[in-house]
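dumping this here so i dont lose it
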């Protein structure tokens, strides 16, 4: 979603920078390090038994353990956690980022910047951002009321440094520094967004999982506070994807470490199928990804139907070159074709649809909704296929008219426009248009 949105904004004239925020600080990274250390011992012959509760059980850490053993031998095996935690954490984080970068590359997802949360801690940028809030009188020491339900990690029944987020419409004030002097997760988020402002960005778009919905208002509040309302934040929440095979849910277990990775999906159905299908729903709507449906060759499979339209146009153009070798099929020549021949309702409907493309793509960008492009392409492909089918029964509606080069030129101009719009839309979605199927 984020990659397609960035491409959509870039296509419509925005100056876009794509960043990946690396959560390489905090408790979850320590859990990763402990899990990797367990696999390190396993690689050196230790019987680790069942993975303890609270650690990551996935087999993806087995190669990390082997790499640790190859690099360090048994150097850390009998050391205390205090001694091995930092080097193992660094090694495991780098290994995970190598895997993530490889998966992103598999999906052709591009980033201009990979931004480390840890650098905010090490550089003192968290303190700088909080000093800015302090200067505005927006920090104070206080004790928060206990929250209802599950208590968040940053809550404690002790005095903490709090940000006055209620001044900006939040439900409660938010902790930025715990009673022991350590920073909360929110403090790093404050610093990261402040750093973006300092780099000159005035419009920020964050893409989060839907489970972080309760976090939106506090980040919006602090950006409004730090920028005096001059910087905008648009948080886009992405819902879960359910994997199916012939309508049956694919079983996965976080506890046992049994799951299907994105790379597994790409290897099975291809990058372009994954990207297009993922973008057929609005980001905050759940999606059923059925392996059987996304690979079938039918109208019910949108990625096939759109690609088939693009490939069909190329097939017609190849046949036209053979039928009329002397016909100039350059864009300049086709643009001069006589368009008055188009009188059939299917032709006119297709033309009207294409005329809407500039307005449609602009509205999709303003709404921050790249799924609209996928819908548009499907509708355009449907109208093209309908016209194709009409030509099977009505010779005068065929794209190549024997002994009538001018009608052929006009029809080739029409379908070339279809091809160009489909190619542009697919490129926005990060899908490579095919010329043969």
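and the seq i came up w/
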């Amino acid at each position: 979603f984020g990659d397609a949105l960035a491409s959509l904004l870039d296509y419509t004239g925005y100056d876009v920078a794509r960043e990946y925020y690396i959560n390489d600080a905090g408790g979850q990274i320590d859990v990763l390090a402990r899990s990797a250390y367990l696999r390190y011992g396993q690689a050196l012959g230790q019987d680790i038994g069942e993975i303890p509760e609270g650690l990551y059980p996935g087999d993806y850490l087995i190669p990390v353990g082997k790499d640790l053993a190859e690099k360090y031998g048994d150097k850390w095996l009998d050391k205390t956690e205090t001694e091995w935690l930092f080097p193992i954490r660094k090694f495991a984080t780098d290994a995970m980022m190598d895997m993530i970068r490889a998966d992103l590359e598999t999906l052709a997802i591009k980033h201009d910047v990979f931004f480390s949360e840890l650098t905010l801690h090490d550089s003192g940028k968290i303190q700088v951002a909080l000093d800015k809030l302090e200067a505005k009188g927006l920090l104070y020491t206080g004790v928060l009321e206990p929250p209802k339900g599950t208590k968040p990690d940053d809550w404690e029944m002790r005095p903490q440094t709090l940000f006055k987020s209620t001044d900006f419409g939040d439900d409660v004030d938010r902790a930025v520094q715990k009673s022991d002097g350590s920073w909360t997760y929110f403090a790093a988020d404050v610093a990261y967004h402040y750093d973006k402002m300092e780099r000159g960005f005035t419009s920020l778009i964050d893409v989060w999982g839907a489970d972080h919905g309760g976090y939106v208002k506090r980040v919006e509040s602090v950006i409004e506070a730090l920028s005096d309302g001059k910087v905008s934040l648009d948080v886009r929440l992405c819902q879960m994807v359910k994997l199916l095979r012939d309508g049956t849910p694919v079983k996965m277990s976080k506890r046992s470490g049994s799951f299907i990775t994105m790379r597994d999906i790409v290897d099975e159905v291809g990058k372009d199928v994954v990207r297009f299908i993922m973008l057929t729903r609005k980001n905050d709507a759940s999606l059923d990804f059925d392996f059987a449906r996304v690979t079938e060759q039918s109208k019910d499979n949108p990625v096939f139907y759109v690609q088939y339209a693009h490939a069909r146009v190329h097939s017609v153009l190849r046949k036209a070159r053979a039928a009329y070798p002397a016909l100039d099929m350059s864009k300049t020549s086709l643009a001069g074709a006589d368009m008055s021949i188009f009188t059939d309702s299917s032709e006119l409907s297709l033309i009207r649809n294409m005329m809407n493309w500039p307005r449609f793509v602009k509205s999709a960008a303003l709404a921050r909704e790249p799924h609209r492009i996928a819908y548009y392409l499907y509708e355009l492909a449907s109208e093209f296929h309908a016209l194709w089918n009409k030509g099977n029964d009505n010779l005068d509606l065929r794209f190549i008219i024997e002994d009538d080069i001018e009608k052929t030129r006009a029809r080739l101009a029409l379908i070339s426009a279809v091809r160009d719009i489909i190619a542009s839309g697919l490129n926005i979605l990060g899908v490579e248009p095919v010329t043969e199927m």
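The two ends are 26 Å apart (CA to CA).
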